Amino acid sequence: MKTLVINCGSSSLKYQLIDMSNEESMVQGLVERIGIEGSALTQKTPGKGKHVINTEIKDHKDAIKLVLEALVNEEYGVIKSMDQISAVGHRVVHGGEKYSESVLITDEVLNSIRDCIALAPLHNPPNIIGIESCRELMPNIPMVAVFDTAFHQTMPKNAYICPLPYELYEKYGVRKYGFHGTSHKYVSNKVAEVMGKDIKDLKIVTCHLGNGCSLAAVKGGKSIDTSMGFTPLAGIMMGTRAGSIDPSVISFLIEEKGYTIEQVDEMLNKKSGVLGVSGVSSDFRDVRAAAQEGNERAQLALDIFHYKIKTQIAAYAGAMGGIDVIVFTAGIGENAALVRSESLKGLEFLGFNLDAKKNEIAGEIGEISTDDSRVKVYVIPTNEELMIARDTARLAQ
């Protein structure tokens, strides 16, 4: 059984074709700058190297057409026809309270995902476009929605209920949902496997650090708390998102300074975080380079980022009544040694020491704490695509 995994962003599309008989990736690719000048598809195939297609890609439907053509290409493709694809799994950011598990996509499911657009305005719309495009181009292939929110449905009420009038939860579902669940689930299970431990015996803090960032407290294999909230805007500082702030800032800007709610929403989601503080970029590599050149605001942005991670790790150690392992994952977590070391500085009292040499690791599995550390620190590259493929294969069968 071969499963195609689709992960649509606002102007990008990541994909993998996975052979579920051995869970090996047959091909993986990225379509960038959809609807923007300079769009391209990059496909990497084991044994065939990397192939880049530079062409105009007007929308996500164009992107998916290009992906399907690349998969069956005689020169650099991996299958002979589309009939070899048994199912398609789609990453969907927000499923609300309705979905605590992955589901086969029907019209009703798609409408429910649309109902959650207000809760994830940056993510659900491109997820929906990807689903609709695939359904049009592959009408007879079963498709599955795998929700970022699902893993966090095990949170207890005292963790997910907002301290607001309770009727807002009862009437409108206002509560903490949490995101990046597929990633948190994968890396927490993977680190237990690497350590040779039963996950039911571990207290783990997982740090998913990319352009979007979230941490989770995983106790006994279940999420008991996570940093993102009602939407992916809450939690620690991110690339362009503010994270959690005093909500009175919003009413101050609207009532006292004449901002519209739309302007504030756009600012909090797209113009804040590392970009807003540094004034340089939302890309941490650019901000780090600027800081090294003496840009004080760039350095401040990094300092705030490290501080937010540090205090969240400490909070989750308290929530779980201890900690056994800290895991870093996603683009920044897997590759930025400085972010890891600065975020952990001052937390040694928890029971670990960072090994500077081991911490140079990038993009691969490895322990970065010293051998005598009671609490272990690991880098675990995330594999959300494999988690999506597993759920997709199970439901499609």
Automatic annotation (TrEMBL):
<dbReference type="Pfam" id="PF00871">
    <property type="entry name" value="Acetate_kinase"/>
</dbReference>
<keyword id="KW-0808">Transferase</keyword>
<feature type="binding site">
    <location>
        <position position="384"/>
    </location>
    <ligand>
        <name>Mg(2+)</name>
    </ligand>
</feature>
<dbReference type="GO" id="GO:0000287">
    <property type="term" value="F:magnesium ion binding"/>
</dbReference>
<feature type="binding site">
    <location>
        <position position="14"/>
    </location>
    <ligand>
        <name>ATP</name>
    </ligand>
</feature>
<comment type="function">
    <text>Catalyzes the formation of acetyl phosphate from acetate and ATP. Can also catalyze the reverse reaction.</text>
</comment>
<dbReference type="InterPro" id="IPR023865">
    <property type="entry name" value="Aliphatic_acid_kinase_CS"/>
</dbReference>
<keyword id="KW-0460">Magnesium</keyword>
<comment type="subunit">
    <text>Homodimer.</text>
</comment>
<dbReference type="InterPro" id="IPR004372">
    <property type="entry name" value="Ac/propionate_kinase"/>
</dbReference>
<feature type="site" description="Transition state stabilizer">
    <location>
        <position position="241"/>
    </location>
</feature>
<feature type="binding site">
    <location>
        <position position="7"/>
    </location>
    <ligand>
        <name>Mg(2+)</name>
    </ligand>
</feature>
<dbReference type="GO" id="GO:0006085">
    <property type="term" value="P:acetyl-CoA biosynthetic process"/>
</dbReference>
<feature type="binding site">
    <location>
        <begin position="208"/>
        <end position="212"/>
    </location>
    <ligand>
        <name>ATP</name>
    </ligand>
</feature>
<keyword id="KW-0479">Metal-binding</keyword>
<keyword id="KW-0963">Cytoplasm</keyword>
<dbReference type="InterPro" id="IPR000890">
    <property type="entry name" value="Aliphatic_acid_kin_short-chain"/>
</dbReference>
<feature type="binding site">
    <location>
        <position position="91"/>
    </location>
    <ligand>
        <name>substrate</name>
    </ligand>
</feature>
<keyword id="KW-0067">ATP-binding</keyword>
<feature type="binding site">
    <location>
        <begin position="283"/>
        <end position="285"/>
    </location>
    <ligand>
        <name>ATP</name>
    </ligand>
</feature>
<keyword id="KW-0418">Kinase</keyword>
<dbReference type="GO" id="GO:0006083">
    <property type="term" value="P:acetate metabolic process"/>
</dbReference>
<dbReference type="InterPro" id="IPR043129">
    <property type="entry name" value="ATPase_NBD"/>
</dbReference>
<comment type="similarity">
    <text>Belongs to the acetokinase family.</text>
</comment>
<keyword id="KW-0547">Nucleotide-binding</keyword>
<feature type="active site" description="Proton donor/acceptor">
    <location>
        <position position="148"/>
    </location>
</feature>
<protein>
    <recommendedName>
        <fullName>Acetate kinase</fullName>
        <ecNumber>2.7.2.1</ecNumber>
    </recommendedName>
</protein>
<feature type="binding site">
    <location>
        <begin position="331"/>
        <end position="335"/>
    </location>
    <ligand>
        <name>ATP</name>
    </ligand>
</feature>
<feature type="site" description="Transition state stabilizer">
    <location>
        <position position="180"/>
    </location>
</feature>
<comment type="pathway">
    <text>Metabolic intermediate biosynthesis; acetyl-CoA biosynthesis; acetyl-CoA from acetate: step 1/2.</text>
</comment>
<dbReference type="GO" id="GO:0008776">
    <property type="term" value="F:acetate kinase activity"/>
</dbReference>
<dbReference type="GO" id="GO:0005524">
    <property type="term" value="F:ATP binding"/>
</dbReference>
<dbReference type="GO" id="GO:0005737">
    <property type="term" value="C:cytoplasm"/>
</dbReference>
